[in-house]
Design goal:
126 residues; mainly alpha
């Protein structure tokens, strides 16, 4: 019976860490989605400076978490998100509404995939 204590403890610890990671990712994704929604709203109203500020906030928050993101996500996913953020910021800076909306929609879809992929669910476990 004692032989099972250590493996059970390790499995419980891994489950707790997975739950903590999932919770942290969900919180960050909500914050990033709010910033992106604000930027999309500003672009639709052609408030370019507000859109730029919202994207800057998104970029700042993302950069603060980059090391952790590179641990828990694929490097390609992190790089793709950064490229989409840069493209969004560039299009907002050029005041190109159509291209900015397209880039932000792609980024929104990617953030949804990231948030959904890190949730602890039966489909993700299997």
């Amino acid at each position: 019976m004692r032989a099972f204590r250590i493996p059970c403890f390790v499995l419980l610890l891994l489950l707790a860490l997975s739950l903590a990671n999932s919770s942290a990712m969900a919180r960050h994704c909500v914050r990033w989605n709010h910033a992106l929604d604000a930027a999309q709203q500003a672009v639709s109203e052609e408030r370019w400076s507000d859109a730029g500020r919202s994207l800057d906030e998104l970029q700042e928050s993302w950069t603060a978490c980059e090391v952790w993101l590179r641990i828990v996500l694929s490097h390609n996913t992190v790089d793709e998100a950064q490229q989409l953020m840069e493209r969004s910021r560039l299009m907002v800076g050029l005041e190109e509404a159509t291209h900015a909306r397209d880039a932000m929609t792609e980024l929104d879809n990617l953030l949804e995939r990231i948030g959904g992929g890190e949730q602890l669910s039966l489909s993700n476990v299997l």
